[in-house]
Amino acid sequence: MKTLFILAGMIILTACQKENNQRLPAVSRTIFFKNNADASRKIQTVLDQRSLGEKLERIESVSYIDSKDKSYAFVFYTSNKGSGNVILQQQYLNGQALALSSVTCSGTNCNCQVKTIISNSGSVTLDCSCSSCTMLINSVAGPGYH
Predict the structure, then answer these.
(1) Least-confidence region, from 11-20, 37-46, 49-58
(2) Between 145 and 132, where is the model more confident?
(3) Each residue's pLDDT tens digit, 42-97
């Protein structure tokens, strides 16, 4: 009887492990930055597109989120204009990184910030914090940038 319970437990455990493995996303995150110099160069490119005269002083931290067909890097930095942040979005097709773009929000009637919503299914939606803001998506690097 004891052997029967152990055997049943092993079968259930094996079935659960197989089920969990099938839910893993097919895409694994490609590295956003080759090194610190590459990270600084890409963030400075974003700052140049967004604000004239803003110069990156240092990157404070980077956090990542993956979804089925995109990866996101949340970069917090210090520049000559103070603290800031930017979201880098990397899109995939058939498991290959296509392009890297930056996502920011801009406006005059609100302290515009990018709002990130992650659903229970793992999909990520980016929006601006206020309806008066405009979302800006700029290319940082095109196909084959790695």
Answers:
(1) 11-20
(2) 132
(3) 999 888 988 778 999 999 999 988 887 788 999 999 999 888 888 998 887 776 77
Higher pLDDT, 24 or 73: 73
Q: Whose CA is closest to 74, among 85, 83, 66, 82? A: 85
- Name the token pair of 85: 């942040």
Nearest 5°: phi and psi at 8?
Answer: -65, -40
Whole-angstrom distance, CA of residue 105 vs CA of residue 132: 10
Residue 48 parent element (H or E) = helix 36-50
Cα 113-98-116 angle, rounded to 5 deg: 20
Where in the chain are the domains? Answer: 28-141
The beta-carbon contacts of 78-84 under 8 Å, at least 24 apart in sequence, are 79/47, 79/54, 79/55, 80/53, 80/54, 80/55, 81/51, 81/53, 81/54
In whole angstroms, how far apart are CA 110 and each of 21, 49, 116, 121, 145? 44, 20, 17, 31, 35
